Amino acid sequence: MTRTFWVGGNWKMNGSVAVIKDLVSKFNASDASSDVEVVLGAPYVYVPLLADSLRKDWAVAGENCYIKASGAYTGEISPEMLHDVGAKWVILGHSERRSILKESDEFTAEKVVKALEAGLKVVLCIGELLEEREA
């Protein structure tokens, strides 16, 4: 069985409607090989725009999710919500969420389980901060 090359990237807390429309027009016009699986992550507010306008052979990822499907968790987004607006993937375990927000490996693992249960594929970040890498 042949392995499919996979490439992904995300905006982090950057972008605007205009920026995403411009990037999507360039991505959609690209001649990227169909042998490559491409996944683009965007901030929650841009996931529907990206999902509606990005070429259909590429997939959209949310940049994080919470461990609950619904409830009084102001500012959080559930895996089900991401799936509902067109995300096929979610990126979890970002180093800045671990370092700034003190999210543990155990909490990240809970998120992974909930995302998979909701039908999302998961990109699990396991890298370190630049300072850790250079130490």
Q: Please give the largest β-sheet.
A: 5 strands, parallel
Global structural class: alpha/beta
Which sequence of strands runs across the widest sheet? Answer: 1-2-3-4-5
DSSP, total strands: 5
What's the number of helices?
6
Mean pLDDT across every amino acid position: 93
Task: Please state roughly what percent of the residues sit in beta strands, choosing from under 5%, 5-15%, 15-25%, 25-35%, 35-45% or over 45%.
Answer: 15-25%
Structure write-up:
- This protein is of the alpha/beta class.
- Helix content is 36%, strand content 19%.
- The protein is built from six helices and five strands.
- The chain has helices at 17-29, 47-53, 79-84, 95-99, 105-117, 130-134, and strands at 5-10, 36-42, 59-62, 89-92, 121-124.
- Strands 1-2-3-4-5 form a five-stranded parallel sheet.
- The longest helix is centred in the first third of the chain and has 13 residues, at 17-29.
- It is globular, with a radius of gyration of 15 Å.
- The model has no long low-confidence stretch (mean pLDDT 93).
